[in-house]
Specification:
Elements lengths: L3 E3 L2 H4 L4 E10 L6 H17 L9 H13 L9 H10 L9 H13 L3 E5 L7 E5 L5 E4 L3 E4 L4 E5 L2 E4 L19 E10 L5 H16 L2 E9 L2
Parallel strand pairs: 1-4
Antiparallel strand pairs: 2-9, 2-10, 3-9, 4-7, 5-6, 7-8
Helix pairs in contact: 2-5, 5-6
């Protein structure tokens, strides 16, 4: 399992952080019927829940929004990815199906309410750290172009930021261009505040990777901030 350090940027801002980490060898392919049905069902459940609670009131999302504010980033302008996904569904927009790993990642996010990111390990250069981005940092975010990272929580390696609970970079994204057999991926579930559902989210993610991505050699860990 790749080690991830958590910077004291968060404790200085009064933000509690817990990361759920999974590393596995997976097969990357087009999503199948079973995964599509699981996503459809989870999306329907989330949309139904919006009749009782606003998106921003979902505990995991509320905690992440609070963390963004504490770090100095407007969560209404730079949305937590899980919030953005659920808001899209609430507006009647359809899910985007990408590949087995990305779709499983979105399933985990929908199920838990927590942002999750999946990254190609061969694109990463240790050491890895979860920290607050500084002025001038940016990257090409998946599906949205250049993203101003300043004050966002980011995952970074020796080459700089590559992921965030707001939006991930193109550098380590999972695509169908992966080797035909399998490749190593790191999934990170971003928990803020009490993150009460993190253990369940990790178990659910492991099941998803096994069921839909033919995952082998799964390792899991929880990394807590100082």
């Amino acid at each position: 399992m790749l080690d991830i350090a958590i910077s004291d940027d968060f404790s200085r801002a009064g933000v509690a952080v817990r990361l759920g980490c999974l590393q596995a060898r997976v097969a990357v392919a087009e999503g199948g019927t079973a995964l599509g049905q699981a996503l459809k069902l989870e999306a329907e459940l989330r949309v139904e829940s919006l009749e009782r609670h606003a998106v921003a009131e979902i505990p995991a999302i509320a905690a992440a929004r609070q963390a963004f504010k504490a770090l100095g980033k407007d969560p209404s302008r730079y949305r937590v990815s899980s919030e953005a996904l659920i808001r899209r569904l609430g507006k009647g927009k359809l899910l985007r199906y990408i590949n087995t790993v990305v779709d499983a990642n979105n399933l985990v996010s929908l199920h838990s309410g927590m942002s999750a990111g999946s990254y190609r390990i061969d694109a990463l250069v240790p050491p890895l750290v979860f920290r607050k981005a500084v002025a001038g940092e940016s990257y090409q975010a998946i599906g949205r172009g250049p993203l101003n990272l300043e004050n966002l929580p980011v995952l970074a390696d020796a080459q700089g930021p590559f992921g965030s609970p707001a939006s991930d970079s193109e550098r380590a994204m999972i695509t169908l261009d992966a080797p035909a057999d399998a490749e190593q991926v790191l999934m990170v579930i971003y928990g803020f505040g009490e993150a009460k559902g993190l253990a369940r989210a990790i178990d659910f993610a492991a099941d998803c990777l096994t069921s839909y991505c033919k995952a082998e050699e799964i390792e899991t860990a929880v990394v807590a901030g100082p």
